Amino acid sequence: MTEIPDDDPFHDCELGPEAVLGRRTFEDVLFTDGTETPVDVLTGETPAHSQATIEEAKEFAASIDTDTPQIALPASVETQIETQSKPYTAAAFFHFKATGSLERHRAYHAAYDSDAFTVDFEADYESGNLTITVDRASES
Fold first, then answer.
1. d(Cα 121, Cα 71) in Å, to the nearest integer?
2. Cα–Cα distance list, 46 to 32, 37, 40, 42, 79 (Å)
3. Which of 59, 85, 107, 139 is buried deepest, with most CB atoms within 10 A?
4. N-to-C CA span, the chain
């Protein structure tokens, strides 16, 4: 069995850097104007708490006080109803709800935290697509 050096940023990850290197687009994962919202069955209207714009969602995500850039993800209709919340929530740009798996989330997080990689992302709230690009630092 090969030993993994302590300085390997992926030592706690199920996936290695090959799984995240390059450019990948995750489709329909961001909050958009088309995000599903609840409708009051009596009035046919969307409750005020579930009405929001892309700008509000982007501002909310940007306002989160953390070193990791945040994106606005859609909140489920159930969550909006149960918590009387907006139709979006904020999460790290590599969150598993955006990247599709906890394993990929951990690998992107490891790359982001490592000086050995450069990680950039583009959040297109019009399409709902998130694009993440990972390169080795020596290549950028």
1. 10
2. 16, 7, 6, 11, 14
3. 107
4. 33
Contacts 24+ apart (CB under 8 A), 84-89: 84/47, 84/49, 85/49, 85/50, 86/49, 86/50, 86/52, 86/56, 86/57, 86/60, 87/31, 87/35, 87/36, 87/37, 87/50, 87/51, 87/52, 88/31, 88/35, 88/52, 88/56, 88/57, 88/60, 88/61
55-91 pLDDT tens trace? 999 999 999 999 999 999 999 999 999 999 999 999 9
Q: Which residues on neighbouring strands pair with residue 124, listed in sequence order? A: 129
- 15 contacts 107 by C-beta, under 8 angstroms: yes
Ranges of residues in the chain whose predicted pLDDT is under 70: 1-6, 139-140
